[in-house]
Design brief:
This protein has helices at residues 53-64, 100-113, 126-138, 156-161, 165-180, 200-207, 215-218, 243-253, 273-286; strands spanning 8-14, 20-26, 39-43, 69-72, 119-124, 143-149, 187-190, 196-199, 226-231, 257-262. The protein is of the alpha/beta class. It has two domains: 8-155 and 211-286, 3-Layer(aba) Sandwich (Rossmann fold), CATH 3.40.50.1820; 156-210. The strands form two sheets. Strands 1-2-4-3-5-6-9-10 form an eight-stranded mixed β-sheet, with helices on both faces. Strand 9, helix 8 and strand 10 form a beta-alpha-beta unit. The longest helix has 16 residues, at 165-180.
Length: 287
């Protein structure tokens, strides 16, 4: 929970394509030593929101170290949201990953306007996938460091080849049929990578994009240092199983990557969150 000693402010930004996004800015007291970063931008994952308890805990720890935090909403919040309020639905079921650039840029612009220009970008799950994508394509110099917390590997070839590839193939076939029938926003039920619903066109755009959104394909293009977390219990999922080797391979092209496996950790490091937070703070202090 956010510390009562930290003043908080509900903030809003409007993206260049007209979406109104909401977040929570938490001020922090003076840092004990000159900070490596002057603010943190914390981005949630699929079907989540900026007020998730997991993100509150990480933000509170950063604030206690003297780092102001902005927990920001993006267009992928919740499974379905009202989007622009004019009939364009969004949320995880309808968003396009490419459009994360508009959301991330809007929030960084807000921090920039407040004088924060050495930002630590923290992304969780799909928010981590988007953060790597943003930094690889925008190379935004205002981001001085990036935290990738449990990003699933979006790589069509590898997903189809895994033990659950038949689920992905069947769902893509159903989505393609809806698209061919002129129903691009038809809701289809999904089992991979999670049990949910998705618009047909949005599902194809996310999961049939080859390596476009593959964190490990984008990492070599990220200019700032990267700290990555994976929960040990996530290795049962094919989207996380190869993280140790994937990060090691990425480090050959980008040496400033540190990867920590959180013992006993699940996707949100439940019951071992203090270990995950301590490792992040140690990385910040070491820099």
């Amino acid at each position: 929970m956010q510390s009562d000693t930290q003043a908080t402010e509900l903030v809003e930004v409007r993206t260049t394509d007209g979406l109104l996004l909401t977040g929570l800015f938490a001020a922090a007291g003076p840092a004990a030593s000159p900070p490596r970063f002057d603010a943190a931008l914390v981005m949630h994952g699929a079907a989540s929101s900026f007020d998730e308890g997991f993100l509150r805990d990480f933000s509170a720890a950063l604030g206690a170290r003297g780092l102001p935090t902005l927990r920001a909403g993006n267009r992928g919040h919740d499974i379905v949201n009202r989007g622009d309020g004019r009939g364009r639905l969004l949320g995880t079921a309808f968003e396009r990953i490419d459009d994360c650039v508009l959301d991330w840029r809007a929030w960084l612009d807000l921090l920039d306007a407040r004088g924060y220009r050495r930002v630590l970008l923290f992304g969780h799950s799909l928010g981590a996938v988007k953060s790597a994508y943003y930094l690889a394509h925008e190379r935004d110099a205002r981001v001085a460091g990036c935290v990738l917390a449990s990003p699933p590997r979006f790589n069509t070839e590898r997903m189809l080849a895994c033990e659950r590839g038949d689920e992905l193939a069947a769902t893509l076939a159903a989505a393609q049929a809806a698209l061919a029938a002129g129903r691009p926003d038809e809701i289809i039920r999904t089992t991979f990578p999670m049990a949910s619903i998705s618009g047909a066109r949005a599902y194809i755009a996310k999961y049939a994009a080859g390596a476009r959104y593959d964190v490990f394909a984008n990492l070599p293009e990220v200019a700032c240092p990267v700290f990555a977390l994976t929960g040990e219990r996530e290795f049962g999922d094919p989207l996380f199983r190869d993280h140790p080797g994937d990060y090691e391979e990425a480090r050959e092209r980008k040496p400033d990557i540190e990867h920590v496996i959180v013992p006993g950790g699940d996707h949100v490091y439940r019951r071992v969150r203090d270990i995950a937070i301590a490792s992040l703070l140690a990385w910040i202090d070491a820099g």
